[in-house]
Amino acid sequence: MELAYYTVRSFVLQKVGTIETREVRQLQFTAWPDHGVPNHPAPLLMFLRRVRAECPADSGPIIVHCSAGVGRTGAFILLDILLEQMRHEKAVDVFNTVSRLRAQRNFMVQTEDQYAFIYEALVEAASSGNTEIPVHQLTTHWFRLTELNRLKCQDLVNSDQLSMGLMKTSMNYTNNSSISTGLELEFYQLLIQSNLTKLISSIPSSIGLLSPIDPFSLKTDEKIYGNINFNSSSTSTIGLPRSITGMSTNKSIAAMLPVNLPKNRSLSIIPHDANRVALRAVRGVEGSDYINASYIDGYRSRAAYIATQTPMMNTLEDFWRMIWESGSCLIVKLDGTITLNDLKFMDSPTYWPNLQSARHGFLVVDPIAIYTMPAYIMRELRLTDTRDGSTRTVRQFDASSTADALIHLERQIYYSISNKLDFNELIESSRPITGSTITTASSTMTSFPPNPSSMLETSFTEDDFLRFNQIPTHVISTFRQCYQPICESMLELISQVHKTKEHFGIDGPITVHCKYVLFTLSLLFCIIFSLTSVTDYQEDNTKSFDYVSGNNNLENLGSGITGVFLASSLVLERMRYEGVIDMFQTVKLLRWQRPGLVQTVSEYAFCYATALEYLESFERYTT
After folding, report:
1. Closest by alpha carbon to 609, among 571, 573, 574, 576?
2. Residue 461 pLDDT
3. Active-site option among 66, 153, 487, 526
4. Is the pTM of this model over 0.85?
5. Domains of the chain (ranges plus CATH)?
6. Is 487 assigned a catalytic role?
7. What are phi and psi for residue 383, nearest 5 degrees?
8. Is the N or C terminus of the chain more exposed, i.e. has fewer CB atoms within 10 Å?
9. Which of 121, 74, 156, 109 is nearest to 533 (CA)?
């Protein structure tokens, strides 16, 4: 079985003249380059866990080899030893362990880069832990993630029970607000570890994730910048050299060139040089090789997707050049048609032709057919290279209705919170959008919202609390009642996109783009999940607060819902093949490949909800 980062092979071994047979498993890590080290330690850690899982207790020694059997082989063995030492002794001794290895075989861990990479991998393993969950435990894990922290918010902020450096930040949190569920703790941990948020400068980096998270057993080490808590309060804390902590920082030099700046909708969402989609340079045209797009690894293959921003008027030709040159024949459009907060985005042209041909440089795009489905619209387009007459069929999956349904529901909930409306009005206002085939909420939504904890101080009155307490609610059921139709649409979209790819034998990457960012933030989820208090909600509800950057943000970033699609696709495929789910590492790796993929707690929760719906669809089918 070939996966994106490693391949698993099985052999049957039999000695000539005997009847005894043995099965031998070979696991080949394919993401280690010929020169240097892997770009990120997470795939290697995932591979190491798979190796351990394939090795029964009564088996013989594991054979490890590379070209010379010292460099990469030594790094793999060293990491395995140190992870075991960390697990049993709560400490690591890199230097002496390498010395012992070299006493047994010369040149084990051959280069300085490999030695430094071991430190980086240890930090990754210690800060994240093993976040893989068997699919049969997903529902239980979800309950734990949404379990309320019964401590008073003020006590939590001032006590030693707030872990992972999640102190008061620059997000305009008041003294009475704090993180109150494992879901928000997990997402904050993801933000900190991905190092892609402006909050990192104001949050101590003493981090450590318990999976599943138990908010009552968390403790905080000294709030010293630069220290890393390797697991929990029982684990020693070590300081890392500056040269180690920034090893995986990606550079975006091409995106920041003056000639390329107008091609970016936002400078906060730009591709890294290592995995950006590089167009063929046009002779004499500076910056002609640049487009704001990133290759994203899939579950079964590298560079299986392209994540990009919705084309602007000045990047239309670049967009179609990218489709042609990359061999992409599938486009997933996740733009919503709803105008958020009555603000219009002017630079969002229709990049496909509806009735007649459109020319973009040397490429001509012709409409062929259009098919209207419940969850999406599929357009067939013919792309022709006028230089030699070669053609290719491109299929676009327009899932605007799914994006609209999610945006519409979140807007209504946010509006209800801000205006303290009777939530029965929310049910009435959450009817399907005109022209949309997606039902955003059903009559079963009468259980909305969940009972807020009496320990959480909010801006709601006692009458509000009494009214809420009269509603029979449950966190999981409420969430699914609100989002189940949209999750079903997302599952249908993902399924049909990949079925189309397999049916037509398409080898190129799937291009995914979106326009809007989901907004419902902690202000929304204080009602859906009781994540935080709402004492600091915006009185002016014509503005929305950016959960990640702390700014009002209505830009077309090509990251929010795109990240939801990508994360859900990867998670569902792994659930199907391996029977495990690791939402934390999946989203973390996505954000490492392109900034901002899955930007908010709401998007992160929606990914979990989609996985739950996928799991329950199997249960409904089998019963």
Report:
1. 571
2. 35
3. 66
4. no
5. 6-128 (3.90.190.10), 133-245 (no CATH)
6. no
7. -105, 125
8. C
9. 156
Report the C-alpha gap between 15 and 20 in whole angstroms: 7
- pLDDT for 58 equals 83
- β-bridge partners, 134: 580
Burial classification of residue 316, based on how many CB atoms lie within 10 Å of its CB (0-12 exposed, 13-18 middle, 19 or more buried): middle
Which region, left, alpha or beta, applies to residue 102 given φ > 0 means left and ψ of -120 to 50 means alpha? alpha
What local confidence, expressed as pLDDT, does residue 451 receive? 29
Closest CA to 307 of 510, 494, 4, 496: 510
Contact indicator for 365, 380 with CB cutoff of 8 Å: no
Give the contacts of 103 (CB within 8 A, at least 6 positions apart).
none
Q: What are phi and psi of 385, to 5 degrees?
A: -90, 110
pLDDT of res. 11: 95
**Euclidean distance between CA atoms 596 and 603, whole angstroms:** 11
The side-by-side arrangement of strands in the sheet containing 305-309 is 293-296, 305-309, 510-514, 330-333, 391-398, 377-385, 363-372, 358-360
Catalytic residue among 153, 487, 514, 607: 514
Which of 509, 533, 602, 511 has its CA nearest to residue 564?
602
Closest CA to 274 of 598, 595, 597, 599: 595
| Catalytic site includes residue 153 | no
Q: Find residue 366's DSSP bridge partners.
A: 382
